[in-house]
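Let us practice reading a record.
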Amino acid sequence: MKKSQVVYTLIICFLASFIGAFTYKTWFNSPAVNVVETDNSSYAYRASNTEGLYLEYGFITASKISTPSVVFIRTESQQYQRTTSFWGFDFDPFGRIGKVASTGSGVIVTEDGYVITNHHVVKSADKIEVVLSNNRRTYTAKLVGADPSSDLALLKVEAKDLTPIKFKNSDEVEIGQWVLAVGNPFNLTSTVTAGIVSAKGRNINIVNNQFPIESFIQTDAAINPGNSGGALVDLKGNLVGVNTAIASKTGSYVGYGFAIPSNIVSKTIEDLKEYGEVQRGFAGVDVVDIDGEIEDKLGVEEGVLIKRITNTNEEAAEVLIAGDVITKIDGKVIDAKATFDERMAYLRPGDIIKLEVYRDGNPRDIDLTLVNKEGTTELLKKESVVSEVLGAEFEKISKLEKDAYRINNGIKVTNITNGKVRQMSVGEGFIFVKINGKPMNNVQELVTLLTDYKGQIRIEGIAANGASQYLSFTFR
């Protein structure tokens, strides 16, 4: 073989090797990447040995962004334990005092110190402390307001330049989307767990209230005691919900956690800051989920059945009837009572909604003006009387509550702290209907009576869940 031929052969072999190596690196060894942009976050699907790399970066980024906005909450309260004899008589009807401490989580929502948490985390607390995650500074918190219906409470600490979390539109959250739960389980501060959104619009009947708003985001991210009030965030660190509950017989994580959607949280914060209570619009109807039998009978596939027209909204009695099926509110599909309650939670008195209703198998559009709990379209400011001696806040019950409980009068007690009311073992939201047989209509009269009364006292009332209660004490 000639020398020139050898040189050409070597050059061809070198080029073939180079092209082969380049081709293998490009098509076989280098992972293919397909990034899909959505409204929620960026998802990267990778092949080969770097699968999950982008997801890992998402977890890290979301943790760094959200952790400084999640706080540790400590509460302190007095608890009374009553002692009875073998025959059931009270030796000390108001019990012995014991101090109880509990913990939870909260989320910073403004730079100047507003913090959102669960109502059950701070309920009946005599003292509330907020501990920042980044510098461990501790602040005494003031309760701005609470909404037992959604299990949310707003706190305020005197601080500046805090790191507020950014909110995400919870309507855009999708089933299967990755989320992180950030909180303080078992007193372990700044803990992050990962999971996916398992379902939306879950109603699990845990809110002990006559008018509960339950339309939870369900997740399999590990949520344990102490996580309550913490943040559920997407891979950009944006708030999609406030963690509130777990489904467990043991009290610890078993695969199901629930969070209040961020849209409900956002509206609750605005209302509590401005009015001291949540401005909720009422349609004046009681609705229930429809089952297969009702679907076949009425010829509809989804919606909620109007079971009763209440006395709260006069317009509803004119345009709706029991047996109507509501399938849409303002164009949004209503597939369950939880969805109906969630949509209503976003609205205020005076708002006009467009209902799509099926009646006698035929669809019709109905406009309805929402009212407040007194049956008017005004935005109401909270009116109450606070008693330090009794350790509670008192207010007259609304028209809505009178209709729901089927009573003509009553005084409701909230924000119970250390005082005479707690000694009576009366819970949050209890309604004093009668004392010693006398109907209670005037708040100040009730406060004075409970403050000054001596001797045997008989109380007829209704608990927050609607159950009747009868109490008897001897005031000394």
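A brief commentary: Residues 301 and 354 are 20 Å apart (CA to CA).
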